[in-house]
Request: fold
Amino acid sequence: MEKNCEHPPGGDSKPFVGRFRTILRRTLFFGTVVTVNIAAILWLTDLFWRMGFQKAHYPLLAIFAILNGLLVLGSFHAIFGAIDMLLGRKQSVRISKLADGKSGPLLKRHAVVIPVYNEDSVKVCARIEAIYRSIEATGNLESFDFFILSDTRDLDLWVMEETAWTNLCRNLDGFGRIYYRRRKTNENRKAGNIGDFVRTWGGGYEAMLVLDADSLMDGADIVMMTRIMEAYPRLGILQTPPKLIRGSSIFTRLQQFAMRLYGPLFIRGLNYWQLSGGSYWGHNALIRVKPFSEFCELPALPGREPFGGRILSHDFVEAALMVSQGWEVWLAWDIEGTYEEAPPTLVDHLIRDRRWCQGNLQHLWLIFARKLPFSVRMHLFMGIMAYLGSPFWFLFLALGTWVAWDRFSAGLSILPFENYAARWFHIDGTQQSIILTLAIFGLLFLPKILAVFGAILTPSLRRSFGGAIPILIGALMETIVSMLLAPAIMVAHTLMVFSIIMGRAVGWGNQNRETDGTAWADAYQFHAPQTILGLVWTGVALNIGYHSKSPGGWTSKYAFALWMIPILLGLLLSAPVSVWTSRTRYGRALAKRKILSTPEELNPPNVILVADQATAAVDPALDATLGSRRGIVAAVVDPYVNGVHVSLLEFAEIKPADEALVERCLSEGPAGLSKNELSDLLYLGPAMLMLHRAVWLRPAEGMHSVWTQAVESYRRRLDHSASV
Reply:
């Protein structure tokens, strides 16, 4: 990862932000974070001294330093973001300034790439149609090609992807501009999928816009991104901050409301210090193909999974490699028309987090690598601590419980020691504890307070959320539910980290994007660790109070249990809250009252409306989704589907073994063959043609009923048409 200093990217072009200004901003930001954290650590140390220092206080202080450091870091992103907003757009650093006033045709060719894995192909194509039409409206469509890069393993979905793509191209006149490719072996997951595109087709394009299957972007913003890329030769990756859309359950509505209301503060604060040393989030980003091809080939990590093997969270590492080679990675915080969807339930969110957790923990190999720029190490650190923070929090609470047991049962609270807070500020231990607690809660809630007041005091923003009352109610509801969810997520992340440490690697599953709620039985099974831990911990907290020797009333005796109420409630109610937040009917009821609504929901941008109404991928004449002729069956029986499928295959000669496999498929049906055997047949054009001719020309005797029923479905359709 050594920086290429002999031939810096961009030749002699001037950096967008100078080195001195970058160092000054980072020193100010992180210097403030470190100073505030040290002050809090010293304050807690002084409090422990007043109580009588014990051995358990040492690990408590160490863990507090980590947790409070993360809290201060997050909070100051919002504080610096708010300051940046107050200074105004002209004073802010924004890379999009390079595209101001530019028009006319683009100078280079660019690709829009969409990796898919077992997705609803009709909905994926609807998003592509919306993006396609949106770029076309700018007059720059000639500069773009689109690539659907399939790693789908479900063979039925594979056939549906082919038919949806064909319909899309025919209805948009997109043949030769919209391409479809399915990899036979999906090595190295999404990173391998993108890498295969770069090696095969990347040489024809200056940059590629990488999207997820659920991504949606406005065409004018895509054109603006390409103008920035063309105008600034040093730019390697241009990342946009996607907004969450189409949330129907309480859980997704809470997420998209929080991201839309609070997110801009954190984004601006992040941009304040990272500047040209940004990160890549894996989608909704424009990447210059040449340096990506040269420097971003991901090596396998030493050892086996979960810590070794292929890198799962490839995006952070690809950005790190780009920055380490002197290329700039920027966050285009002011590009608005970029969207994505979120998992619909807490259960789905945590299942996805399991994969991200393993990928981020793999970065422990990289964070201490030689000659990495500071910003790269910080991004890797924050990604790792997004999951390691939970085990630290759990350990802090567990140690706090132990100290409370020892202190309350022994009555140690009545043995004060002289300390600096008492000497300098003339306050007692209770007041000192309250000040620290208020400071921590202030840091925790200040970003939300700043965002809420900023939205209410800005007329256009206030109206876009539906008014001041919906903003206040939504923020209050989001805060309460987030507090209830936090302990459940803490335990889930702790178990994830523990299972990864124990050597359990994660699989590669498709993401659930739609559901009508989590079943009660599933919720209690999934959240059983949280529920059991909550019951046990509640008993311990009450027992501490029952055996307490502290003077005073019941509030003094049960002070620890009262302090733990938010944690204990979150654990005990994890399953009910998970079920309640998963329900779409409650989400719809809130939407009618504009609660947890976002500007994109109340006033949808045109690209979202087009995607919602898009039908180019659907055509009854070419359909592989019908019950009796679905997927593989349609590819064999339906003449149109069979023709499309075979036309997309490479030439191959059929062998006697293949002919025997065809006969087995005819007699036993698709269920009689293994998945690998079916896949081999689907890749053999001559075999697919043999199957198609056989099901239409042979007598029904000796053929499996799945084929005869599919053929018969055509006769029923014709008979119905004749009777009408």
